[in-house]
């Protein structure tokens, strides 16, 4: 005999479709909303987290990565002389301009780095290499922004603040939180493009020697250097994310949407599972009357909820992945494996929670109901 | 006279409390013996359903005593009652109360599953019970595909699955035409006479009186006649 739980679920196909659709809707909604939140966080901190640096040095009071304020680059010698430092490199990250051939301008996030160092380098390269940035006018742009910048092939010439910029490579999928296009160039080019004095830098990236305690090194550098702030990569990432997500209000809507998605998803699942259980209330009453223990009935209800959760999750996560794929580059939705796995347990939890609510109802069944026609 | 299989003494049941309290049963004394068909008759609201609910261990009495096979059940804990029901009582309901998602055979198997009978044995036993109520060709039929009489026969087979000593039937013929109703009552009588079950039938239907060994009238929560003998 197939279990009552399975029969209850699969006997009424319409009810099954309604139940599963409710769960699928919730899974997709939560995945997309939370994925959007994660995606925004990722785009905000991508440049920081893709560096191999352990520490970031910047002018005191910088709130986010694009807000760097120039400071003397000779501090890099003090940094390199500090015990525990394996490497240190200057880097410029700043909003910039881009002039298309027709004279129209676009915004960029210009990243100027040392092409010979792997402390920070363009990633997701699909054409060209970091070494190509050694040319005096070389830039690498991200394909996502190519159309916006008017770029359609390598070797094209553009202008950045009156200085020539030749496209020597493409990255793919490096997005910014704003509409600014990601553009890589050499540190020296960036000084020229951004009209920063050539004895200045915006950040110094620090790589610690293996086995060095990062916090100890951070404190040592902080004591040694004046007028600058030393942060770990995570601290700086968190600070940047906090600024964009909370201080500007730009991310608050994303967070609210994610929380609402979570709440709506939970409500939909709870209501769906609850309704599916209540549909069979009379049968549970009959089961109690003929001698089933409460435990026997709880098992049926929880089994129904678990099966619904597994089917709903399986379909929902596939739909969510398809939705993310279809959204592609138009929305920075991120559906990492931990979210997908976490979503499974959340679905299971939501369904079992809803089942428990209905179990409470089943427990309170008026036994005499079985005698009513 | 042998010991009654069900013995009810001084039973009262009051719903709610305070000014709105309603006394559904008032000092009921009743004996039910193995091998007899007892018909419990009375107007709506007289306390019939409350009485068989308490005798069936699915409702608690306010006071009084109920003994099933000599065991006092009014003081038992809630979690002990399902086992008492499972081992001693089979229910037949007016609305059949079959599980619509299960076949006839599976409906009967539930009672056996609750008793922990192995799959193969319970399948054999369920089919034998369906054979005994004349439904050999309906093992795999769902309730929706059965007539009212066939559904009630499946319900009787299910009630017998746990081999209970007592069958409590609430208006078992109310949803059936007269011919089918007679067939069902014949079956009830055979259960009592051939298998020694105590059968308690609650009914408004005067036509079932001919199948009863004893008719007990209840009104306003009190037994008017024939509760004990």
What can you tell me about this protein's structure?
- The complex is a heterodimer of chains A (373) and B (229).
- Chain A is of the alpha+beta class and 373 residues long.
- Chain A has 2 domains: 4-43 and 251-371, no CATH class; 61-226, no CATH class.
- Chain A is built from 11 helices and 12 strands.
- In chain A, strands 1, 3, 4, 5, 6, 7, 8, 9, 11 and 12 form a 10-stranded mixed sheet that branches.
- Chain A is elongated and about 90 Å long.
- Chain B is of the alpha/beta class and 229 residues long.
- Chain B has one domain: P-loop containing nucleotide triphosphate hydrolases (Rossmann fold, 3-Layer(aba) Sandwich), CATH 3.40.50.
- Chain B has 6 helices and 10 strands.
- Chain B has a 6-stranded mixed sheet, with helices on both faces.
- In chain B, helix 3 packs across helix 4 and helix 5 packs parallel to helix 6.
- The relative contact order of chain B is 0.20.
- The A-B interface holds A 1-2, 4, 7-8, 11-12, 282-283, 286-294, 296, 367-368, 370-373 and B 49-50, 52-53, 56, 58-59, 79, 82-83, 85-87, 89-91, 93-95, 97, 99-102, 105-106, 109-111, 113-114, 119, 122-123, 158-159, 162, 170-171, 174-175.
Break the fold down into its secondary structure elements and pairings:
The complex is a heterodimer of chains A (373) and B (229).
Chain A lengths: L3 H8 L1 H37 L5 E5 L11 E2 L2 H6 L4 E15 L5 E9 L11 E3 L10 E5 L3 H4 L7 E4 L2 E9 L9 E6 H7 L6 E2 L1 E6 L5 H11 L3 E5 H15 L4 H27 L2 H9 L4 H34 L9 H27 L10
Parallel strand pairs in A: 4-9, 6-8
Antiparallel strand pairs in A: 1-11, 1-12, 2-10, 3-4, 3-11, 5-8, 6-9, 7-8
Helix pairs in contact in A: 1-10, 2-7, 2-8, 2-10, 2-11, 8-11, 10-11
Chain B lengths: L5 E10 L6 E11 L4 E5 L6 H8 L7 E6 L2 E2 L8 H8 E4 L11 H11 L4 H14 L15 H14 L4 E5 L7 H18 L2 E5 L11 E6 L2 E4 L4
Parallel strand pairs in B: 3-8, 3-9, 6-7, 7-8
Antiparallel strand pairs in B: 1-2, 1-4, 4-5, 9-10
């Amino acid at each position: 005999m197939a279990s009552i739980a399975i029969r209850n679920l699969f006997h009424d196909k319409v009810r099954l479709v309604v139940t599963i659709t409710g769960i699928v809707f919730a899974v997709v909604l939560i995945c997309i909303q939370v994925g959007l939140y994660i995606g925004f966080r990722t785009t905000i901190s991508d440049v920081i987290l893709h560096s191999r640096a352990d520490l970031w040095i910047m002018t005191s009071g910088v709130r986010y990565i694009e807000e760097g304020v120039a400071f003397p680059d000779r501090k890099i010698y003090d940094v390199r002389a500090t015990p525990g430092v394996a490497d240190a490199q200057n880097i410029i990250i700043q909003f910039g301009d881009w002039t298309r051939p027709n004279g129209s301008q676009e915004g960029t996030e210009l990243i100027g780095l040392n092409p010979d160092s792997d402390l920070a380098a363009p990633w997701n390269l699909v054409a060209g290499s970091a070494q190509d940035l050694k040319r005096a006018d070389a830039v690498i742009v991200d394909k996502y922004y190519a159309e916006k910048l008017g770029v359609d092939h390598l070797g094209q010439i553009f202008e950045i603040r009156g200085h020539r910029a030749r496209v020597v490579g493409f990255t793919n999928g490096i997005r910014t939180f704003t509409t600014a296009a990601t553009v890589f160039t050499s540190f020296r080019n960036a000084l020229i493009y951004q009209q920063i004095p050539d004895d200045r830098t915006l950040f110094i990236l620090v790589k610690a020697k293996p086995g060095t305690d990062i916090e100890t090194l951070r404190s040592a550098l902080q004591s040694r250097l004046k007028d600058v702030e030393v942060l770990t990569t995570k601290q700086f990432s968190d600070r940047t994310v906090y600024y964009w997500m909370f201080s500007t209000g730009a991310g608050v809507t994303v967070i609210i949407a994610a929380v609402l998605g979570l709440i709506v998803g939970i409500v939909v699942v709870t209501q769906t599972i609850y309704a599916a259980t209540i549909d069979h209330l009379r049968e549970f009453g009959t089961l109690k009357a003929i001698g089933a223990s409460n435990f026997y009935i709880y098992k049926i209800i929880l089994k129904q909820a678990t099966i619904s959760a597994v089917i709903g999750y399986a379909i929902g996560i596939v739909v969510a992945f398809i939705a993310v794929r279809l959204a592609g580059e138009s929305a920075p939705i991120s559906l990492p494996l931990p979210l997908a796995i976490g979503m499974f347990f959340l679905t299971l939890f939501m369904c079992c929670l809803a089942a428990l609510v209905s179990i409470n109802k089943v427990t309170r069944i008026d036994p005499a109901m079985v005698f009513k026609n | 006279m042998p010991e009654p299989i069900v013995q009810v003494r001084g039973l009262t049941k009051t719903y709610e409390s305070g000014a709105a309290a309603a006394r559904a049963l008032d000092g009921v004394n009743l004996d039910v013996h193995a091998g007899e068909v007892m018909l419990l008759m009375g107007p709506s609201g007289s306390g019939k359903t409350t009485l068989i609910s308490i005798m069936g261990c699915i409702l608690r009495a306010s006071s009084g005593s109920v003994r099933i096979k000599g065991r006092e059940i009014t003081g038992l804990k809630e979690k002990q009652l399902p086992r008492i029901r499972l081992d001693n009582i089979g229910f037949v309901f007016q609305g059949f109360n079959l599980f619509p998602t299960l076949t006839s055979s599976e409906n009967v198997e539930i009672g056996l599953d609750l008793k922990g009978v192995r799959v193969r044995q319970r399948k054999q036993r369920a089919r034998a019970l369906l054979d005994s109520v004349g439904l050999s060709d309906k093992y795999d039929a769902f309730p929706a595909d059965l007539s009212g009489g066939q559904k009630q026969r499946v319900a009787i087979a299910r009630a017998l699955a746990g081999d209970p000593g007592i069958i409590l039937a609430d208006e078992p013929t109310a949803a059936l035409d007269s011919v089918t109703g007679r067939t069902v009552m014949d079956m009830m009588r055979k259960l009592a006479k051939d298998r020694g079950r105590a059968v308690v039938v609650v009914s408004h239907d005067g036509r079932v009186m001919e199948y009863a060994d004893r008719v007990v009238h209840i009104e306003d929560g009190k037994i008017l006649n024939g509760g004990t003998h």
